[in-house]
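Request: Have a read of the protein record below and say how the chain folds.
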Amino acid sequence: IGCDRSKNLVDICGEKNFQAFVGDALSVPMRSGSCDACISIAVIHHFSTAERRLAALRELARLLRPGGTALIYVWAMEQEYKNQKSKYLKEKHSNKDKEEEISSGMAQRLPGDQMPESSSQDSACTDQLLNNSRDKGCGAKPVADCRLPVHTNRTSFHSQDLLVPWHLKGGTKKRGESGETVLFPAGSKESQGPSPVFHRYYHVFCEGELEAACRSLDGVRVQKSYYDQGNWCVVLEKL
């Protein structure tokens, strides 16, 4: 059974006959101890405070039955580990990737009213985020001002707290005469112009950070902790 905050993604699961519901990872509407296993892939690194990240881990543990296990993946600060570059860094830039990176740089200079409110750099800035982004022994640099850095695709990370550009693919959204949003097919006359760029918040984890958070929980033990292609991973067992 899957859950996601996005109703559109959950609807796609339903169309494919998968069981899924709209839910919040910090408050999953399921009974405690009702799951044999839980999987959390690329979710917890989107929570913007250490307290919320810990709460998400605690919620996973709550769902597990005794003896049940949870697999957790988060993005790693160390994209080069033991002299090996991650797949993320090794993927070669296609022409499209380069165009998107150029668009990303342009997007940072767009007026605020052309960017989604929830993804503006200023709105994402809090004292807690600035404190979290200070050097923690893994090469992170202090944030110089009240703006989160915007990551450049396929490069190493220089801050633990950052925004990653996401480019809308397959068409361009524009306002119709009625005021509602219309999606025009890619390549159509109406879709000409820069594609919307959305900035997603990430907290990339340093070595040992996820494991330490998991070990701070009551009633669970860390069965395994490892690095996998640019991700820190933990397997938890409910006691």
About this structure: The first helix runs from residue 7 to 15. Residues 146 and 238 are 40 Å apart (CA to CA).
